[in-house]
C-alpha cells in the first residue's frame, strides 16, 4: 500500500511552487530496484535531504552536514515528512514564502538495497543498506536515536559502514570534493542572510556536448479555438517582436525568431541584460512598445524601430531554456520561469520585465485581455519542457483573428489619399501563393508613405499568384515581388478563402514570406491528435502526406521534420542500412500511438524501398532493404520512426558479420553503473582480442558492436555472444545477468545476446527511437565513453550539432576481419556448438 502524503501536501501551495504534487502511485509496481536520491537544499540553512524509496513514497531525512565516508563520523539525520517519488528528479527554486524556500539540486541518486526486510527494519529504527549511486556506494546504516529534536521530529544518525568505499575524513570529504548536481552540473553555495540563494553554473569549462548552442530556435504556440481542459498557465500575448537573447562569456546578442542579429538595433536592451551578469544563457521574450495606458502598441513599436528610438522598447522575458550554464529545456515550464524570475530580480532597468502568469480562470483572463484590446493570451501546459518547434504545449487564443500575409500588390489611392489604396494579400500553400483578399484601413499618413516607398522598387508586370484573379479583382492592381510581410486583423475567413473586415496592424520584418500560411485554429480537443493536412514533397521528390502531424508531443516534432532530419543525415545512416535486411518500427499516429514491427514488405507498398530475393527468407513475404535517400524517406512517409538491421548482409545471409551485446539496465540504476559495465565488458572483449565499437542505444543503455569476418553461422555467433554474457554474469553476479525478464534484472544490467539469432535485429546506428523526445542511437569513440551523460544524450533536435563538430569518424577502423577462435572459447570456459 502506498503511504499518504497529506503532511507533504499540507505544507505546500502548488499554485506557487514548482515542486511535484503529492500524489501516490496506484497499481502494481514495475519490477525495478528501489531508488534513492540526495538533494542539496539551500534553504535557511544549507543541508542535504536524504530520501529512500519504499512503498510508493520517498522516506526522507534532513542531514545538516551531508553524508561522510568516514565511519567514525555519525551524521545527524532529522526525519521529515514522506515525499512523492516524483520529487526525486526535482531541481529548481522554491519561491520565497513557501515551505523550504530556496534552491534545490540533485546531489546524488541511484538505487538502495536493504539488507533486511525494509519495512520491519524501518519500524524498528535501524536500516542497513547498500547504496549504488553516482557518488555514494557501499554499505550504510540509518539508526533512530532517543535524542529530542525540534517539535516531534525524530533524530536519526547516518553512518558509513567499514568497507572498501570508506575513507577517513582527513583524507577525503566527498561533500566538498563533489559539490554539484548529477543531473545538470549546477552547484549551490551556502545561503546568504541578505539575499535569496541563486542556482548557478559550475565555474569550469563545459563539455562539448553540453556547450551553449551558437544558434537557437524558439518554441512556438499553436492557435486554438478555445481554452482546453487541463493544467495551464496563461500570460498576455504581447503585440511585439519575438526576440531571443544569447549571453556567452559576458557578451549579449539579440536574435529574431529566424536568427537575424538585431543587437545593434537594441543597444540599451542588450546593455541592461549585460548588467545582470549572467553566465551562458539563452533567454526568450518579446520586444514591446507600450502606449500611454501601459498596453502593447505594435504600430508604436514599428515607429520606434523606424526612427531608431529603442529607448521606448521594453523586453518582456518569459522563458529561459538555458540559464547560468544550465540546460533547462527538459525542466518543467514552472521551474524554468521561477529561475528566470529570480535571475531578473536584481535588475533595476525599466527595459527588462518578467512576463507574469495569471492565476485566475482562463476564461476570465481571456475576456479581460480582449476587453483591454489586447491581442490575446498564451497558454503553457504545466510541467512541459521547452522545445524548439511549434507544438501543443504552448497555445494561443486571439481576441480577433489576426495573422501575417504576403503583400503581392497594391491599388491606386482614391480621393485625397496618398501612396496607395489597398494592399493585396496572399498566403502560401502547396500550389504556391494564393490570394487572400485585401486591406485598405488601419494606415496613418506616415505608414502610407513608408510602405509605398517600400513597394515601388518591387513592382513587377506579372502576378506572383499561383492562380490568376478575375478581371474585376485585378483591375488597377500594381503587382510587386512577394517579399514584404504585413500583419492584419480581420473578422473571419470567407468560404472563398479571403479575409473580411480587414485592418492593417503593421509590417513584419522578422518573418520571411516563405513561412506565411493560412493559420487555422485547432480545436481544444485536437491537441493530442493534429488535423491531417495536404502532402508535401521532399527535395528527393518523395510525397509526405500529413506533413504537420505531430509525431512526438514532448518535442513537438512533425512528420515533415522527421523526414527532413533523416534526409539531412542520410550519408551517415545509409552505410549501416545498405546490403542488410531492415525491419521497420512504425508508429503512424506518433510516439504516443500504436507501434508495430514490420520485417517483410507484405502488401504494404513502401515508396522506393528495395524488396529482396524471396529465397533469403523462405515461406515469408520478401525482406526489405533501404539503399537510398528516397527509400529512407519512403519509410518515413509510411510512419516509420525506427530502423533495425540484421547482423548479416544480403550476399552472405547465413554468415553474420557482427555480433551485438546490448547492455540493458534496471532503469533505477545510476548512469555511472552503465559506464562501469561497458568498460568492464570492453575489457573482457579486449582480453579476448576482439575490438568492439560503442553506440548509445537511444533508450536506456549502450550497444557494443563486434565486427566479424563472414565465416561462422548464426548458431555459433549467438552461442559465443551468450558465452560472453554468461562469463560476465559469473564473474560479477551482483552487477550482471544473462537471463531476460524484468524480475531477473532488478538492480542489475542484462547483457542481451538474443539479438544475434537469425532474423533478429538491432536498432541501426543513427536511427531515431520511437520514444518521447525522439532520441537517436549514436556511435561514439572509446575515448568519449567516460564523458557520456546518458543513452538519450542526442536527439533529432541536437544530433546535427554533434555531426558538425566531429573531427573524425568515431568508428574509424571498423572492419569485418575478426574471427572467433578456439582460444577465445577456452578463455570463456565455454564450448562451441557442434
From TrEMBL:
<dbReference type="InterPro" id="IPR014144">
    <property type="entry name" value="LigD_PE_domain"/>
</dbReference>
<dbReference type="Pfam" id="PF21686">
    <property type="entry name" value="LigD_Prim-Pol"/>
</dbReference>
<keyword id="KW-0547">Nucleotide-binding</keyword>
<keyword id="KW-0511">Multifunctional enzyme</keyword>
<dbReference type="GO" id="GO:0006281">
    <property type="term" value="P:DNA repair"/>
</dbReference>
<dbReference type="InterPro" id="IPR014143">
    <property type="entry name" value="NHEJ_ligase_prk"/>
</dbReference>
<keyword id="KW-0378">Hydrolase</keyword>
<protein>
    <recommendedName>
        <fullName>DNA ligase (ATP)</fullName>
        <ecNumber>6.5.1.1</ecNumber>
    </recommendedName>
</protein>
<dbReference type="Pfam" id="PF01068">
    <property type="entry name" value="DNA_ligase_A_M"/>
</dbReference>
<feature type="region of interest" description="Disordered">
    <location>
        <begin position="516"/>
        <end position="540"/>
    </location>
</feature>
<dbReference type="GO" id="GO:0003677">
    <property type="term" value="F:DNA binding"/>
</dbReference>
<keyword id="KW-0436">Ligase</keyword>
<keyword id="KW-0479">Metal-binding</keyword>
<feature type="compositionally biased region" description="Basic residues">
    <location>
        <begin position="195"/>
        <end position="204"/>
    </location>
</feature>
<keyword id="KW-0548">Nucleotidyltransferase</keyword>
<dbReference type="InterPro" id="IPR014145">
    <property type="entry name" value="LigD_pol_dom"/>
</dbReference>
<keyword id="KW-0227">DNA damage</keyword>
<keyword id="KW-0239">DNA-directed DNA polymerase</keyword>
<dbReference type="GO" id="GO:0005524">
    <property type="term" value="F:ATP binding"/>
</dbReference>
<dbReference type="GO" id="GO:0004527">
    <property type="term" value="F:exonuclease activity"/>
</dbReference>
<keyword id="KW-0233">DNA recombination</keyword>
<feature type="region of interest" description="Disordered">
    <location>
        <begin position="1"/>
        <end position="30"/>
    </location>
</feature>
<dbReference type="InterPro" id="IPR012310">
    <property type="entry name" value="DNA_ligase_ATP-dep_cent"/>
</dbReference>
<dbReference type="GO" id="GO:0003910">
    <property type="term" value="F:DNA ligase (ATP) activity"/>
</dbReference>
<dbReference type="Pfam" id="PF13298">
    <property type="entry name" value="LigD_N"/>
</dbReference>
<feature type="compositionally biased region" description="Low complexity">
    <location>
        <begin position="524"/>
        <end position="536"/>
    </location>
</feature>
<dbReference type="InterPro" id="IPR033651">
    <property type="entry name" value="PaeLigD_Pol-like"/>
</dbReference>
<dbReference type="InterPro" id="IPR012309">
    <property type="entry name" value="DNA_ligase_ATP-dep_C"/>
</dbReference>
<dbReference type="Pfam" id="PF04679">
    <property type="entry name" value="DNA_ligase_A_C"/>
</dbReference>
<keyword id="KW-0540">Nuclease</keyword>
<keyword id="KW-0808">Transferase</keyword>
<dbReference type="GO" id="GO:0003887">
    <property type="term" value="F:DNA-directed DNA polymerase activity"/>
</dbReference>
<keyword id="KW-0234">DNA repair</keyword>
<dbReference type="InterPro" id="IPR052171">
    <property type="entry name" value="NHEJ_LigD"/>
</dbReference>
<dbReference type="InterPro" id="IPR012340">
    <property type="entry name" value="NA-bd_OB-fold"/>
</dbReference>
<dbReference type="GO" id="GO:0046872">
    <property type="term" value="F:metal ion binding"/>
</dbReference>
<keyword id="KW-0464">Manganese</keyword>
<dbReference type="InterPro" id="IPR014146">
    <property type="entry name" value="LigD_ligase_dom"/>
</dbReference>
<feature type="region of interest" description="Disordered">
    <location>
        <begin position="185"/>
        <end position="204"/>
    </location>
</feature>
<keyword id="KW-0067">ATP-binding</keyword>
<dbReference type="GO" id="GO:0006310">
    <property type="term" value="P:DNA recombination"/>
</dbReference>
<feature type="domain" description="ATP-dependent DNA ligase family profile">
    <location>
        <begin position="310"/>
        <end position="442"/>
    </location>
</feature>
